[in-house]
Amino acid sequence: MSEFKLLRVNLSSQKVREERVDEKTLRRFLGGRGLGAYLALKEIPKGADPLGPENKLFIMSGPVTGTAEGFEAGRTHFVGKSPLTGLLGESNMGGRFAPWMRYSGYDGIVLEGKSDEPVWISVIDGEVKFHSAKEVWGRGTHYTEYYVKKQLNAKPNEGAVLAIGPAGENGVRFASLIHAGGRAGGRTGLGAVMGSKKVKAIYVYGTRKPEVVDEERFKKGVEHLKEKIGNHPVKKALNSYGTAVLVNIINKIGALPTKNWRKGTFEKAEEISGERMAEKYLVKTRGCWGCQIECGRLVKTYSPEWGVPEGSKGPEYETIFAIGSNLELSNLEAIIRINHVLNDLGMDTIEFGNTVAVLMELYERAEELGEKSEELKKLLDGLRPVWGVPNPVLELAYKVANRDGIGNVMANGAKALAEAFGCDCVAEARGMSLPAYDPRAIKAMALAYATSNRGGCHLRAYAVSFEVLGIPVKTDPLEVNKEKAKMVKEQQDFFASIDSMIVCKFNTFMTPSPEDYVDLLAGVTGWDVTADEIMEIGERIYNVERLFNVREGDPGDYLSKRLLEEALPDGPAKGETAKEALEVMLPAYYEYRGWEDGKPTEETLKRLGLQEFLYII
Amino acid sequence: MSEFKLLRVNLSSQKVREERVDEKTLRRFLGGRGLGAYLALKEIPKGADPLGPENKLFIMSGPVTGTAEGFEAGRTHFVGKSPLTGLLGESNMGGRFAPWMRYSGYDGIVLEGKSDEPVWISVIDGEVKFHSAKEVWGRGTHYTEYYVKKQLNAKPNEGAVLAIGPAGENGVRFASLIHAGGRAGGRTGLGAVMGSKKVKAIYVYGTRKPEVVDEERFKKGVEHLKEKIGNHPVKKALNSYGTAVLVNIINKIGALPTKNWRKGTFEKAEEISGERMAEKYLVKTRGCWGCQIECGRLVKTYSPEWGVPEGSKGPEYETIFAIGSNLELSNLEAIIRINHVLNDLGMDTIEFGNTVAVLMELYERAEELGEKSEELKKLLDGLRPVWGVPNPVLELAYKVANRDGIGNVMANGAKALAEAFGCDCVAEARGMSLPAYDPRAIKAMALAYATSNRGGCHLRAYAVSFEVLGIPVKTDPLEVNKEKAKMVKEQQDFFASIDSMIVCKFNTFMTPSPEDYVDLLAGVTGWDVTADEIMEIGERIYNVERLFNVREGDPGDYLSKRLLEEALPDGPAKGETAKEALEVMLPAYYEYRGWEDGKPTEETLKRLGLQEFLYII
């Protein structure tokens, strides 16, 4: 790979410009997440308003994107400044957008500036066009995808659409970017960044082929992955039950966040499990571009109350936790419908669910709110967000997307909602709500969440893999030790490279070593890379991301009070908090990283060749 | 009354201007509906886009508005060109807006032009201010009222707010104007006219007193009404059960439209009746300004699914039909919540319910739609509008207000939806859906609907009063005769004057003669009016309205096919259509009116002093 072709789209002037990122930079950051973070740090000015014209949205592929089938190389990475955290925002989306983007002639698209009028953009075999989006502004992503393809007379399987819903238009700080009906760049609110630029959708299509420098070695790398994945029991589990296979597993160890993180087990977990979904609602499985795992669920429902189109995208494990156990909601059909609506409105299901959970707790504890309780009542305008009742959740989806009443407060996220009512009832790190693994029951997740540069996230280090699933080795999830800090750090670095190549992280369950990717990366780029270099690139990326945060006033590596001070009352982790985990592991982690107080040292930056950013620390 | 003080607000220039309408014109049109129609005809240019800057919104009081208590003189009348019908649009709203408008110094406000940015307007003791509405644009009317009063530090009982919701902003063609949480200028879509001018809300407050010329005679007139109303059993019925007292009455005679006008009785009518509402959900009664009837319901609900604020506005009979029987929905709590949401989003419940009814029929008969059935499926995006199921109805409210997916088609009204899918399954006249009385079971209503200038309406002539309630005399609702045509014509004229004074029509159940209003009107104006003059003024108004329609290409006095050709299958009116009623009564009606082919003749116009409009016929 000798260059990375970026399409720069200036919305203010409606001018476009091609730019080539040189090979030297690529070898330092690969593409995807890494290159995005590097460019974001260089180009987005300090203190920029995430919803202002100075912010940028990087839509990135990586060197292996769209090259070969059998492992998952179809994902897209987004980078920008997050409207939710005010720090680095980034998100990774499945489906087939990035492959089609490369086929259209560009390895990445950068949205800059701000349009006056709503537009959508088509990129077809190198030709870029702006179209008025007046007709679809205000509408959902489902209709928008349909509309865009109709306008272009595109065949169903040709090209890909990326769209935002009303949430992105209305500056909901956890608005998502949606593709193919339900593939989401969900976290950190980059949908609102696209919305602030008044870009409703992007269509990409073309016939260009991505470059593979050393075909033979590349093929060897692909075959290696294909074979290891193809024979692995994890593939079978993901294919049979999707990510929701985790519901029962995580519930069993007492780590399934329930009732706004006040319990670790949900007595009705079985009813919202992947097994139940497969048994009653699954129509067929669906993979991203080139993927043999096919963890995606295409589902149907039966009741008139909770209809979805037959074969629409089913909820992931994270959504099932956020809309299900965490709200004590066990009606899987309702969850399927609400997930569908959230995708249509374009909102991160994790942040939305957590925000509703906070609201339900506020509503339950209204008497403790003092004079704020009247304001809550006023803003709720009669809605009764009660545990386990789906109707208000569905209505809240619309209210948040429209920023109406209580929805206008909720649109700023769970932490903002809790703060607005003076309640310490939120599970978050760096201002982003936590996903579906209680760190009090899976200790290494405490560190993973606290040190995640994009805020509370399970995908920067997925310590669940060793703590629960035994990949690559099984650890005791309730034990706290420094070795885990090292494992978290290494996973963060490894995943940063994986997100930059870009390969799906589910591959790493089955091919969990950087070694597994050496031939693949060397083949596609022609570089003589090693496993160590892959890890070093990941570490460089992780440091660049941290530098972005430090420059913007990073609030540091913490977990919110609920996890540090309130012990789990139930399940195998009864009595546990996440306090000790952080106290023991965070200092060890900083040592492994070469950081002081959460900041890279001069020595570390020099070691990673990041001297140009010394000014930040 | 020597003058009518109009405040002209030009939104394009943000300039305001006071104008006085002379006494001669007032004596010809009174105020309210009459003066509004006259000015609309003179000022709104032929062919004007209802949502363009050339349209105007007249917000009117009448000579008796806010003068004395004991009869209902608190209503507001709106006039403009209707986005729903393309003809004259007008609507009458309860509450206390018009009295406060008069106290603020103006008898009427005319919105003209179109603002670039969203604004709200305050009129306080003659002083007009424009405020940015950026903070509330996109929000519901409930929050908007709260916000406006908060901005001005207004006391709860001082002043009044008129607001639109997202439906009005998004050009929903049946968007309403909302005041006091649920008082609605619902029909003909004038909320969208206010929205097109980017006016979110108007606040009025002041301490000026309306003029009463002959205090003594006025007092005599007031006492007459007060006494007759106070002792009347209809007052008791309306006070006890609200307008929903009609559910059981109309169901009993087989005229309660059910399942999109395919039945005339609803087996679960009892469950959605005014009696049931009083028994289970009523918190207290509430009247408009100065009213002793208090037909308004303040309600509560119990279930978490269908919450409303305790004491919020309960649904009227029309809403209970539109969201209830016509959708075969018997869950009164759900109806209460949906009504609340429709008020918040700012939509006419009658047109919305009828549009959903058409959608349910389309969904049920999808197989008959041919190639359109795929499009319907696509636009529904999984929603299953099934008879009797409330959830999809609630979601459709949001989808229509946001003009998303199927909501974008529904936002143009029931007739437009039926036409889009090639289905003759709509009950309408002049493009507006019919209200809650099946004209196949109440024959005079067939004529009333067909000849209503604003389209299918029960309030231009309320033939139900004689056909069902026996006011002033009881007729046989299934009989067709020419005498009824005369009664309809006379009621139309009488009501046109009543809507121009402005007095609530419920008064006319108890004081059903123009004689009853002579002292009142003579007293307040100082004019030596007679009952005949009141009737003649009404006739003049009715002809002016008709002239507006004729100029805009009136589609004529018809009822849609469902009512003319499909016989009722059930109840006391089984086997009946409305065909004969129209065939017999319409020619007689034209004769009484002095019209030919639905148009006033030259002679009629001259008789009524409307020579200036001879150019139209």
From TrEMBL, chains A, B:
Domain Aldehyde ferredoxin oxidoreductase N-terminal: 4-208
Pfam family, one: AFOR_N
Database matches in SMART domains: AFOR_N
Top-level taxon of the source organism: Archaea
Cofactors required: [4Fe-4S] cluster; tungstopterin
InterPro entries to which the protein is assigned, alphabetical: Ald_Fedxn_OxRdtase_dom2 (IPR013984), Ald_Fedxn_OxRdtase_dom3 (IPR013985), Ald_Fedxn_OxRdtase_N (IPR013983), Ald_Fedxn_OxRdtase_N_sf (IPR036503), OxRdtase_Ald_Fedxn_C (IPR001203), Tungsten_al_ferr_oxy-like_C (IPR036021), W-dependent_AOR (IPR051919)
Gene Ontology molecular function, alphabetical: 4 iron, 4 sulfur cluster binding; aldehyde ferredoxin oxidoreductase activity; electron transfer activity; metal ion binding
EC numbers on record: 1.2.7.5
Top-level enzyme category: oxidoreductase
Keywords: 4Fe-4S, Iron, Iron-sulfur, Metal-binding, Oxidoreductase
Keyword Oxidoreductase carried by entry: yes
Family: Belongs to the AOR/FOR family.
Protein name: Aldehyde ferredoxin oxidoreductase
Species of the source: Ignicoccus hospitalis (strain KIN4/I / DSM 18386 / JCM 14125)
